[in-house]
Design goal:
The protein has 389 residues and is an alpha/beta fold. It is built from 13 helices and 14 strands. The protein folds into two domains: 4-152 and 299-358, Rossmann fold; 153-286 and 375-387, Rossmann fold, CATH 3.40.50.2300. Helices cover 41% and strands 18% of the residues. Helix 6 crosses helix 7 (180-195) and helix 12 (317-336) crosses helix 13.
């Protein structure tokens, strides 16, 4: 079960945390639980990310505790819903800090994570984000307490661009979610993409909760690009697809990893066939060689998540971030042999861990530790993710 505090919901959080908060305790007390605080977007536009992240964090905590905990201590996690709202995320962090956690996890979105960064830095507490944008961890000199699980948007764009260039799709139109996540994705095609030989012929913003994309897609169609890049997530990813089909567009459609969820594929049905989506290997786990160390954990995670959380199935890359985040933190606690914030932060900079999302090799210069080897371009065929050929 998840924390009672989380289940009470946003309106009761202040009272709930006040009642459950405890004064700072000695981390060396025998069998004392190590408290981790988390806030993710379980409601609002980011809910398709936050729900599987919350499920997967709890699943990881339960697995670790069943195996004996970390250094003889069980983990305890309090998961709050920030409603995809930066202000709520900030309020959640303040309430979580009142309970004196050893670390923070979250949030699901770039804008909610960026809102959390100043508080984590001020409190000097390690934080692991589930947001894609490199802004969350860069520059490292200003983000020394911040780490993240998703591959950075730069590497996602690079992988997509390499795939597109091989096919001669260098004249592109971009429709992007009109927030920090979408704007950074757009930037990688306008700036780094230009240096790589890409020409962005039209740019169209779309609100995260938009209900129609006809105007934007009509403009993109008129620009006659060789490919359309949609840098967004659900629900606007589905709105774009609907408009794309209604306008009978034939231009190749490529989504960023924000759309790499089986929920999108299941909801869209045959309408999504032929579209491309950047993804970690979770969506094509069957293609990972049996002797690859990532295959075993992928098979385990997919089977366990599907059994324990059928309401949020099928699996997605986002749940993998939540699961890996807990295990990476547990590894850092084990290596540090302490929950002292500074020692834990230093240990995170030396973590090497093979998880659902790839093999993390963190360092003082890289607080993510993944690269293009962790991501693939997939194509939807008959309602399933396949490795794009």
């Amino acid at each position: 079960m998840r924390s009672i505090t989380w289940r009470l919901g946003a309106l009761a959080l202040g009272l709930a945390v006040t009642l459950t908060a405890a004064p700072p305790r000695s981390a060396g007390a025998a069998n004392e639980p190590y408290l981790i605080g988390a806030t993710v977007s379980e409601s609002g536009p980011g809910s398709s990310l936050g729900r599987p992240e919350a499920d997967s964090m709890q699943m990881a905590v339960d697995e670790i505790n069943k195996a004996g905990g970390v250094n003889g201590h069980p983990l305890q996690i309090t998961i709050l819903d920030d409603e995809s709202n930066p202000t709520t995320a900030v309020n959640n962090v303040r309430r979580l800090l009142d309970a004196h956690p050893i670390a923070l996890l979250g949030s699901s979105l770039t804008q909610t994570s960026l809102a959390m960064v100043p508080l984590a830095n001020q409190a000097q507490i390690p934080m692991i984000s589930f947001a894609s944008s490199a802004q969350v961890i860069q520059p490292v000199s200003d983000r020394k307490w911040i780490f993240k699980m998703p591959i950075t948007d730069f590497h996602t764009a690079q992988t997509m661009q390499e795939f597109m260039k091989k096919r001669g799709w260098t004249k592109v139109g971009v429709i992007y979610r009109n927030d920090d996540y979408g704007k950074t994705g757009l930037g990688h095609f306008q700036d780094a993409g230009k240096r790589a030989g890409f020409d962005v012929v039209d740019v169209e913003p779309i609100a995260a909760n938009a209900s129609d994309a006809t105007t934007q897609l009509t403009h993109l169609k008129a620009a006659n690009p060789q490919a359309i890049v949609a840098w967004t997530s659900l629900p606007s990813a589905a709105v774009i697809l609907k408009g794309y089909r209604e306008l009978s567009m034939q231009t190749p459609l490529l989504y960023s990893d924000g759309a790499a969820t089986g929920v999108f594929v299941a909801q869209a049905g045959t309408a999504l066939n032929g579209a491309y989506i950047a993804s970690t290997k979770i969506n094509v786990a069957g293609t990972v060689p049996k002797d690859d160390p990532q295959r075993k954990i992928l098979d385990h995670y997919i089977a366990s998540f599907t059994q324990l959380y059928p309401k949020d199935a099928p699996v997605s890359i986002f749940g993998g971030f939540g699961y890996d985040g807990v295990y990476v933190m547990a590894r850092a606690i084990k290596d540090a042999k302490s929950t002292n914030a500074g020692l834990l932060r230093d240990a995170l900079e030396h973590v090497t861990y093979t998880g659902v999302s790839g093999t993390y090799r963190m360092s003082g210069a890289d607080h993510n530790g993944l690269s293009t080897f962790s991501i693939v371009v997939t194509q939807i065929e008959n309602g399933k993710f396949t490795v794009a050929k």
